[in-house]
Design goal:
The chain is built from 5 helices and 3 strands. By secondary structure, it is mostly helical.
């Protein structure tokens, strides 16, 4: 129970601190954060549009990080879509949470990669919703796929607590 309380407190503290920091343009490392957002947004766009086209076989037109469908629907990848906030949340959570640093050295990058793959899944899932049930796109974006990030982060944390922290 103490671990769950710590998870909630750390996650909320990181969430609200990040929002405050973003409102202040990530001072004093605006350039670094902008570059990280650019890198992750670009990677997310390229990887998700490739899966949408080559795995799902959807016919899309891509222009400047935006995917367009024949039904007039589109998905634009902005900095807010990059997943940087969620990656930072995961990394900081694990850094603040007790456990052996020897394991954290490999678990942090692995978890960050899993969070990125979750983001690719989110965009691909939104593409499927856009094509098959476009009326549910906003609901899926706001209430299905966005919270899914936190399910994954929580699952990574549970794995840490149950399997790796005490060994």
């Amino acid at each position: 129970m103490v671990d769950v309380a710590m998870f909630i407190l750390i996650t909320l503290a990181i969430h609200f601190s990040y929002r405050f920091w973003a409102a202040h343009q990530y001072f004093p490392i605006q350039g670094v954060m902008s570059s990280m957002h650019e890198f992750l947004s670009d990677a997310l766009f390229k990887q998700s549009s490739w899966i949408i086209q080559h795995v799902l076989g959807m016919d899309i037109t891509t222009v400047e990080r935006t995917m367009y469908w024949q039904n007039q629907g589109y998905i634009a990848i902005s900095h807010g879509c990059s997943g940087l906030k969620q990656i930072i949340q995961f990394v900081l959570l694990m850094m603040f949470f007790p456990g052996p640093w020897k394991r954290k050295l490999w678990y942090l990058p692995l978890g960050a990669l899993i969070v990125h793959f979750t983001n690719i899944f989110r965009i691909v899932g939104l593409a499927v919703v856009l094509v098959s049930v476009p009326d549910y796109w906003k609901f899926s974006h706001d209430y299905l796929f966005r919270p899914f990030f936190y399910v994954v982060i929580f699952s990574l944390w549970v794995y840490w607590v149950e399997k790796l922290k005490k060994k």
